[in-house]
Design brief:
about 350 residues, mainly alpha, about 55% helix
Length: about 350
Amino acid sequence: MKRARGGGDDEAPRQNGAAGGRKGDQQHRSDGDDGGAAFGPTDRQDDDNPGLRREIRSKYRDLINSVQQNREDMLSPSNNKLTEVLEEANKLFKDVRQAREAALDAQLLVVATDLGKEKASQLFAEGTAFDPTAFAENLLSFMGLNRLENGEDGENGAVDGYLPQDAWHRVARRAECCFQTAPSFHYMMGSFHAEPPPPKQRIERQRKAPSKEAKRIMPTQLKKMEESHQEATEKEVERILGYLKSYYQDDPTSPISYYEFVIDPNSFSRTVENIFHTSFLIRDGLARMYLDTAKLPCIAPVEEGEVEAGGSCSRKQCIISISPKTWKELIDAFDIRETMIQPPNTQYE
């Protein structure tokens, strides 16, 4: 009966909307306190108001027709009609409650989006037509270029003239509004020039004089220690030189291998000591080292006459290193079974 009395297509959606509203109302009531009512009585009356819905649809159609008819005018960069249409559509969308009005709003959005895209492409095309020569001319005029009186251009179209001293300051003042920078630092109570503090006078502290007991005992102890170590080293060097001379005199034609002479197969520490003390013989010119036919180092004593004739300029020194691993490899390579330098009877500390 209601559909016959309405006599139009507008009544059927209203009936569906009312039924949907009642179903939604019943559903929210069944949910209890968790959901609550989604719409109030005033909202349900607006949904069932056919006059309000018809007015919204009419306004949406008017906006769509306005955009389509005034398309060429809206494409102009100086025309803001498209913005006004979108603002009007936002106001209408606040009263949209049914699908038909929402579909019209989506249709208007599609038309406006296409128009905005085309307008943006035109703006980009216009932006590419940048004339650097005109820009440079305008920039020079803004900076206050003082042209020459003859007014003739220089070579390659350059403008003759000179800029004032504050030309770039003008550009900086004009451009500073485009950058959000922090204000420059300044002193609230005037400028502060940091100066280095005056140098402090250095007061020399008087050293505490040692007691008579320390003066008498300490130098004596140090002197005895130095003398004991020096004497022990000298004695050990002389002892090793005696071994070297005795081996050389037994067979002067047979070269003495350096590694066989200094390596002690039973003690790595004694080997290091032998190398250390033998270095004094080379330094003082009491012994010499050379390479045999197999390019292996050999050692031989130097006679007193040879030391004086050779002089210190003909002697050369080098630094060698040895590790326990190298020590064992040398023992195996030269097949060393006994030491040529016997350890001393007493060990000097």
